[in-house]
Every structure is written in structure tokens, then in C-alpha cells.
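re the bet — no i am not wrong, look at it urself. input seq straight from the record:
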Amino acid sequence: MSEHLIVGGGIIGLLTARYLSQAGASVTLLERRQVGRESSWAGGGILSPLYPWRYAEPVNALAHWSQQHYRALADQLQADTGVDPEWIQSGLLILDRDESSRATAWAEKTGARLDIIDGDTLGRIEPTVGEHPAGGLLFPEFAQIRNPCLLKALRQDVQARGVRITESAEVSHLLHENGRIRGVGTADGGSIAAERVVIACGAWSASLLRELGQSIDVTPVRGQMLLYRGEPELLKHVVLHRGHYAIPRRDGRLLFGSTMEDVGFDKTVTEQARHELERA
């Protein structure tokens, strides 16, 4: 029996496994398919809400705390595993000047550095974005991380610490005993006992928590993106305009996103989304 059983092998599940194992706990992690291949894999890796002033204070507080720790985490993972999670302080360049007043108020309230740049400056620091005479809003301290690299590093790290990972293990229900959770039942009819169970399976968490009388408003949203091969430094900043973004990776790849589609767990890619993103 493990002390801790983690349901879900995304970034949250893997980080939970990392810190529990660092504290000396025995940990087992279950993933319904492949570790790190759901929403954690598919995200763009921007370490901030896109328009943070549109979000509630607790979201921004969590984002701020995470931003303070991500670089050290990435450095330590690279030192321990040899895998570079590619934390890059690329900054966030927003071309929506109609957001200026809200962005300025938010920056003054939170202490975030904000540079309001004119069209000439924009053309000099990011010539590939085309002409934007009104300039833009630059948050130079915002950073990104490359999700697949982070997930690879985390998996290697937790396995080296003795965490047991079981894939293709779909949890169907929780095991109750004397008013406590004592493990989980799996879709194939099996059961796994544990002293404590951590539910970290994203949009799949709701069905398990419902057993405990807990209701959480978490639903899946499909986001499609385009990936292009380019030259390194072709784009220097993460660029955001009218809800769509471009993310430059260290090797020159450019990631463009994203749609937001309420289609449940359907991960099908569509030509309609491709055309939408190409127009953007």
C-alpha cells in the first residue's frame, strides 16, 4: 500500500508526486492513458493568463506565485535529469491598445512591469509583426515554458525518486471505508489501496469528486493550434492580438493559437479551426 495515490499524470499530478517523494513519502501515480499527454501537453506554456486583468484575484495570485518559482524549478529539473524545460523570459507583447487603461491599472495594483511602446519602438523590437502605428503593451518579465519538455523532465525526475507510475489505469470510483477514502477502483475491475488519495485529473476530476458530494465547475474545452518551423529569433516575444497568440520556441518553431470550442473531450482537429488561425 502506498502512502499517497495520485490520480492524474499531468503537470499537477507529477509536481505533487515530486514534492511528496522529496518529503520521503511513498507515492503511486495512476494515469488513464499516457502520462502528460492530455491538456498539460497541449497547452502553449505561457506562464500567465493572457489578459490577466480579466481574471479574478485568486487566479492572478496563483499565477504570480508560480511565476516566482518556475525558473528555479526548471533549472533544478535540468540539473537533475539533463532535460531542459526551456523556461524563457520572452515577455508578453499585447497589440490590443484598447486594453491600455485596464492593463495600466492592473500593473499599478500588482507591481507588474509594463512598458507602453509606440509604433516605432514596436517595429524595432519586433519587426515581423507588421505595422501597428498605435504601438503595444509590453510585459517584459513574463515567461513561457515548453510543456512537453517540462513533462519529460518531471517524469524522469519522479521515477528517479521512486514514484511508481501506472499508465492505462482509468479510475472509475473511490474506495470508502469507515467514512474515509482508502483507495480507488479501476475500470478493469481492479482496486488499489492507499492511505491518502490525491485527485489531480483535470476535467475528469468532477465525476470522482461527485461521490464525495463535491461539485466543481470544470469542463473540457478544445483548443486547436498551428505549429510552424521557423528560424530562431524570428519572433522574440510572445505576441497577443485579439485573443490569438504567437509563441516563439528556442529552436525557431512558432506556435499559433488558439480556438476555444465547447465539444467535450473530442480532440479531433478541423479545417475550420486551421482557417480561423491562419486568418488571425
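see?? The chain has a mean pLDDT of 95. told u. also The first helix runs from residue 11 to 22. so pay up
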